[in-house]
Every structure is written in C-alpha cells, then in structure tokens.
Amino acid sequence: MATSTAVKTVTVDSGVEVFYREAHPASAKDIGALPVLLLLHGFPSSSFQYRNLIPRLATKYRVIAPDFPGYGFTVVPEARKYEYTFVSLANTTAAFVDALGIKKFGMYVFDYGAPTGFRLALQRPDAVTAIISQNGNAYEDGFGEQFWAPIKAVWADPSAANLQKLAGLSSFETTKFQYVDGAPNASVIPPETFNLDYYLMTRPGNGEVQLKYIIDYKTNVPLYPRFHEYFRERRPPILAIWGKNDTIFVPPGADAFKRDQPDAVVKFVDGGHFALESALDEIASEILAFLAKNGI
Question: Does a structural domain hold residue 46?
Fold first, then answer.
C-alpha cells in the first residue's frame, strides 16, 4: 500500500520553485533507504500526467515527479532570467535531485522528459539504476514526419514564415490532439488533462516559453550519438514501452533502443502519445515486473 500522493515545493537552481508530487510505501520506516523512481514529464503536460501511475509504483518505491520550468505549478521568478533550454532543464533537474538528497534513481521519461533525463544520465551515469522510456525519443527513427516537419523547417530556417507555422503548437486543438489521437477509445481520456495543460500554457508569456523549447529541441539531436554511447557502455536496464499509435514519436523509436542496448525490453500498448491515459494498468504492471526482474 502506498501513502497518499503529497504535493510539495522546493527552491533550487538560484530561485526556481519546483512543484513536485511524491509518494512511497505506507509501511516505510526510512524513505531515504527506498529505491527512487524519478518521473519526468513532457510537453504540454506536467507531473499531473502521472497522477494515476504514482500510487501504482509507490507500493514499492519512493516515486517523485517534478514539474519542469514553464509547466504545471513550478514558478520561475522573472528576475531569475531563466534560459528555457534543455541544458537548463537538465541542470534544474540535477539541482532538484540534489536538493532532495537523492544519489541513485530509476527514470521514467516521456517526450521532453527523455532528452532531459538522458542529459542528466550523461552528467551522472553512476546514478541511474534503470530507464523506462514511454514514447521518450533518443533516435531519429522516432520522429513522426507529419508532426515534426514544420518544426524541422524552423530548425533549418527560423524565418517569420516558418515560425508562423508553429503558431498553433500551444492551441487547444493541438493540445487535445496529443491526448486523443491514437487512443483506442477517446471517450476514456478525461477532459481535465488537456484543459489543464492548455490553461497553464496560455498564462501570460508562456507561449513564448513553449516556442523557445521547441526551437531548442534541435540541440538534443546532435547528442543522440552520446546517448547511444551511454546505452552501449553503461548498459542500463531499459524498458521502452510505447503507445503503438503515437504519430509524434513513432514505434521505430522504441525498437531502436535495442541497437545500442540489446537487452532492452521493447513493449507496445494500444494507445497514442499519452498512453498512460488508456493503458495505465498494462504499463504499470510492465514497469513493476521489469524493475523486479532487474533487482530494483
């Protein structure tokens, strides 16, 4: 049995007030001795996307899910002049982990959480006990062409005309699309998911933040060879569990993990990008079995 999920904040990285969710086994006498699972969310969501997964995993683990700067309820003071880049995301996440005194952790990475987590793994490879990648990309094979084509056009030429094509990235329609597209039954997707994301993304100035992140995402691609080298040399246990109907990060991105970590476990569930919304039970069961098999 897990404790109820607590919501907390901690100030790290020169003034960033990180909001996070945390739970652990109710019977735990010393939570510092528990194995840690760090859940890193993606665009356009927050730790809210893990609201149902956290209690499933917290029956055996200390589960911690922070909101990234620009998402959810994490607060970045304007005076901090935060650089909304993936370098910053990795550094803030490292500062967050240090503030909580965490030395080792398994990572569940999704979407933006993947390059953030993999950058963190390059910084401290001995800290990572396992990787669960749920539609969290590390290979060019994983880019869905239709979704990424206008973004890649901006990477190549950030002209006003190309940037205009990304104007709808933070729209309600695109936000809802990311949740319902590929879901086997869209009626099971709670509307509070995409409505909360849209509300938080449309706070004053946040649209500009989202544009900065999507433009900076291109800096992750040149790091892919270093991620692959890390997988080959360190051979962390990897579970790539993918919504098979995702058109943003497509299934070949899951299969690709086995090129560099042949022992990686690749599973597909009937779902889209936000596969947890339609395949929670299956994903949670696969994670618990994977971690138990690897002695975590």
Answer: yes
